[in-house]
Structure formats: structure tokens, C-alpha cells
Amino acid sequence: MTGSKELACVLLASSSLVFLISHICVTAMPIPSCLVGCFCWRQEESKSKEDTKEQKASEKSRRRERLQSMSVEEKAAEKQRKEDDKALKLNRKCLEADALVKRLCARFTLACVERPVVLTAIDVEAWEQDNQKVTEIGVAIVKFPIASVASGDSIATNVTDTKDLVTKDCFRHRHILIREHLELRNGRHVEDNKDNFMFGDSEVLCIDDAVSELAFELNAADFIVGHAISGDLAWLRKIGVNGLEANSKALQSRVVDTQTLAYAGGGISTECMPQLGLRAISSKYALDPQLLHNGANDAAFTLQVMLSQCGQKFSAPVRSHSQHKLSAAYQAAWVEALARLNTEEREGIMREHDLQTEVEAFARLITMSCNESIDEPGDSNLENKVPSNILRFPAELTAKERKIVHTAAENLGLQSQSENSQDGKRFVTICAPGAVPGFETSNKPPLGKKTKMTKKQRKNAARQGQDTENPNRCGNQGVQRRDGDWDCRCGALVFARKGSCFKCGAVKDDQNSSKL
């Protein structure tokens, strides 16, 4: 991708140069300043990229020369110095996290109905093809204690001390879809869960109204919570939210990052670092995170993670599925969004939207039929009221459209499967879980993006001689063990046809190798 951009810059600069030369030769008219500026800017950009490459290459060469000139003792001392610096930074993070948890718990202890604690978690989602365009803003708010809890009207059966209880009524969630960017969807690099808000109904606002609403919510908060919150605050500053100055000490005293809190408590060392992903931290506290990369869902789980990290008891809010597509405001905004697309993009998005809407309508009918069966168990005509509990899509669906149906059904808790007919056509069928005997889904992993190993994980896997995703593969180079391959004492895997180790030069013998 980078190479194509550089090629485009070179071609544009070359075309500009040709135009300038021809302009000088043909006419004596002055050259437009905008073309001269464009040409000069392209030259400067190309030169700066070349300078950056040269600097990186020279730095890498100096580091290599320095390592080669060091003795064994100096290398060991350098390694120990790096380990000490790493341990010092980790200790500083742990102390900072412990102090923050202590300060938050002290504020929670002082909470009362007259002076409740207000925590506001935020998460911003941007378009993956242009991260300057914000598409979603998620807000999750908890205010405790409230009057009903303090008076004893709402008490959980498993909690005896109501002072430490945050009930479901204390939570409030908002999912704001930016009207100007409603047609922009992710899905190439991150999951597209824009329409899968689980704690209410999404709302469509223009960016100016969203900025006003968000500023109001943040000003009322005692603490602003986020997961890697610095990026979210930077996005909010760009769209014009006031009161979020980067160097403000008042703001810094109110900001809480769940990644920082992850270092609180004992058992953390350079060999045992905490996992910092939102899904990993949420799973650690058994919060069952679902449909992440939806702005409001991320904010909701971030808030629950923060309460768990501080040891605050709470009852998790009820999960549902957003019905925002049925509102007149969303439908009007959707028509405007489609008008901003070209014909091909409009047809593709409309097709995807229609398939998702069909699956959602089927899910609502299933829910209504279940409610009617509970409310009217003795109604003999109930079967005539309930629609078919199976929905089969036509065979004309493409592979991409079948994946859309499977994903939409999975997000709504429905079962789905693809099957081939006798004439070789492939159908997609969905139904309610357990509604049809013998209807089973395949034991495949979720349809979201595959989990990729980090660079450090690949390095550790290569050091151990195996890839964690495929035990039959060795290291991060994808080398598969074959009959006759042998392991040298130095840890290298050597091909069967080699009589000596390529790494240490040891000769193959019964004592030096072990065949697999």
C-alpha cells in the first residue's frame, strides 16, 4: 500500500514537471502558482521520505556495529540494564494503579444520595478507511447510590449490604450514530457492530448535536472512564467537544483508564504481565463481553470493568437488541446517507441492509411468538398466530451475502446453517435455538475477525519451536515437521537431508539429535 502511494506521488510529480516544461516552451505566460506549489510540495515530501529511510538505516547500522564491538560481559550488562529499566517502569505503573484504585474507593465510600458518584465511560469509533471521520460515540453512565437503593426498595438477593450495591437502575447508556457519516461501515480490519447496540436503542444525531450532548454528559461526571482513553479524548477534541484540553490538570484528575487500573494488585511482574485488551479484561471478571467494536457496547463493558477493578459490587444491566432502524428519524437519515453514495456502493449497502432487516424482523416474530406462548399457554389457535419458525433464504445469495445472514443471526442469538440441495444449490436457513429437532449449527468459531498473535507471542512461539495455533508448525516461519527431521541440542529444527546443524554446526548423531 505504501509503495503504491509513493508511485502515485512520483507519477504526479513527473506529470507536473512535464506540464511545466511544455508550458515554458509553448507560451510565455506565467506559470500558475498552484502548480508550482504542488510540484515543490511533492518534491519535499519525497525528499523527506528518503531522508527518513536513510536515518533509520543508519541508526540500524550503528546499533549493529555497537553490538558487534561489545564483549560478552558488556552484552550481559546491557541486557541487565534493560531488564532493570523494564522492572522500574512496571513498578511505577503498579504504584500509580494502586494509588488510583485507593482514591476511587475512597470516593465510593463517601457516596450518598445527597452526593452520589457519577462515572461516565466513553468510546469513539471511527471509519477504518479514514480515522478522521467519527461514526459512533458510546456513552455509559452509572450514578450511585440512588434513592430507591438507599431506602431499601431494591435489594439483590445475593448482597446483604445495600451500601455497596449498584443496581441495574443506576446504569444509563447512549449510542450516538453520526448522521453525516451514517453510510460509512467498518468490517475490513475490525468487526462491524454498528447496528448491534445491546443496552437500549441507538440514536441518530448530527455532529454538532452530538458534541453538545456529549459535553453535557461529561461535565456532569465525577470521573471520565475509558479503555486506552487518550485516543478517544483526541477524537472528541477534533470534533469540537470543549473542556478536554490535553494539558488540563483538572481533566487529568478526572480521567480513569482501565488499562492503567489493570496493573493494580499483586502478582504482576515482567514475566507475568497483565492482558490489556478490553475483551481479555472483561473475560477476566466474567463479564461475558459481546459485540465489541460497537461504541456504546465498548463503553458499557469498560464501565463494568472499572467497577470490577475497584472491587465495587454491581448488578449488570439487562441486554437487549436495538430497534433504532424502526424509528422515523433513522429512516430519514438513512435515505440521506444513501444519496451520498454512488450507484454501486448504494446497491451493495442496501442489499446488506435488507438482509439484516429481514433477519431482525424474523427475530422479532420469534420473540413475539415466545411471549404469546407464555401469556396464553391454553390457546388452541396459537399455532395459527405464530409464523413459521424457520426462515430459508434463496440460493441466489452470494458467499458474502450468506456470511452477512450468518453474522446477523448469530448476533441475535439465532441458529443458522448452510446446506446444499440436490441440484447443488446452497441455501441458508435460520431458526430459533432448539426450535427445530435435528437442526444443529456447525462447531465453527464465531464469525468475527480471527485472533492474531502479537510480535512478542510469535517470537516466544518460535523460541519454543511451535506455533500456538498449529502445533505441527514450527516457529513463525511456517516450517512443518516431516519424517526424518531432527532437533539439535541448540534448539534448531534441522531437515532430514542435512547431516549437520545449520545454526551451531553440530554433526547429526544419536546423542545430538532426536527424531520426530
Q: What strand line-up does the widest sheet have? A: 4-3-2-1-5-6
Number of strands: 14
Largest sheet: 6 strands, mixed
CATH class of the largest domain: Alpha Beta
CATH architecture of the largest domain: 2-Layer Sandwich
| Number of discrete domains | 3
Residues in β-strands, percent: 5-15%
Structural class: alpha+beta
| Unreliable spans | 149-163, 378-387, 441-450, 466-478
Rg on CA atoms, Å: 30 Å
Helix % is: 40-55%
What is the number of helices? 15
Distance between the termini: 41 Å
**Would you list the SSEs in sequence order as H and E?**
HHHEEHEEHEHHEHHHHHHEHEEHEEEEE
Give the CATH H-level superfamily of the largest domain.
Ribonuclease H-like superfamily/Ribonuclease H
Keyphrases for this structure?
single chain, 516 residues, alpha+beta, Nucleotidyltransferase, domain 5, Ribosomal Protein S8, Chain: A, domain 1, six-stranded mixed beta sheet, three-stranded antiparallel beta sheet, 14 strands
